[in-house]
Amino acid sequence: MLKRLGRWVIHLDSVFASISLILIISVAVVGVFMRFVLGEPLKWTEEMILALFVWFTFLGSSVVERENGHVGIEYFVEKLRPSLKKAVLLFRDILLTFINLFVFIYLGSQLAAQASTRLTPVLRISYIYIDVAVVLSGVFSAIHIISRISKWKNELKSTANRINEFQTTSQEEANL
Fold first, then answer.
1. Can you tell me the distance from the alpha carbon of 1 to that of 126, in angstroms, rounded to the nearest whole number?
2. Amino acid 3: pLDDT
3. What's the pLDDT score for residue 77?
4. ∠ CA 90-94-96 to the nearest 5 degrees?
5. pLDDT averaged over the chain?
6. Which long-range contacts link 96-103 to residues 24+ away (Cβ below 8 Å)?
7. How far apart are CA 113 and CA 86, in angstroms?
8. Contact 106, 98 (CB under 8 A)
């Protein structure tokens, strides 16, 4: 049950990003229909699309983080020895965790708090509803990176266990 809930939470950013994209397309289609077919343009469509695009961009970024698909200089990393490669990738993940915690979560929270009194011009909704996407993106990205780090940790433990087993077996064979 807990594992299934964990998997659902891990994919929640995909759900939010998908809903944002569907709403962007829907609002754009309605806006075009109203403007060019009925001749009655809606004033709020551009503002709504912009707000949804912020959500889509930031939550889409965390989805890409989950898939480990952000742009990187893989050429140099791939040239490294496997052990050094793992160390570099682990260092990258630790650095990304701190960046997400500080920039997206901490500074994003400050941005959202400052935005609570500002309202959008047409819809008159608080910018906090737009800016909270930055914080959620940081939270989801940090979860994905920490999950990846824990997999590295489990891999290292399993490798260490195999080495210990090999050494024990080798020592027992040498004693025979």
1. 37
2. 62
3. 84
4. 115
5. 86
6. 96/65, 96/141, 96/145, 97/142, 97/145, 97/146, 97/149, 100/138, 100/141, 100/142, 100/145, 101/138, 101/142, 103/138
7. 39
8. no
Q: What is the residue type of 25?
A: I
43 DSSP 8-state letter: S
Please say whether the beta carbons of 93 and 152 come within 8 A.
yes
**Taking residues 61-81, what's their average pLDDT?**
85
Determine the Cα–Cα distance for residues 111 and 105; give it in Å rounded to an integer: 10
Written as one letter, the residue type at 26 is S
Q: Is the predicted pLDDT of residue 154 greater than 70, yes or no? A: no
At 53, which helix (H) or strand (E)?
A: helix 45-66
Q: Look at the alpha carbons of 69, 5, 17, 32 in this order and tell me if their dihedral is positive or negative.
A: positive
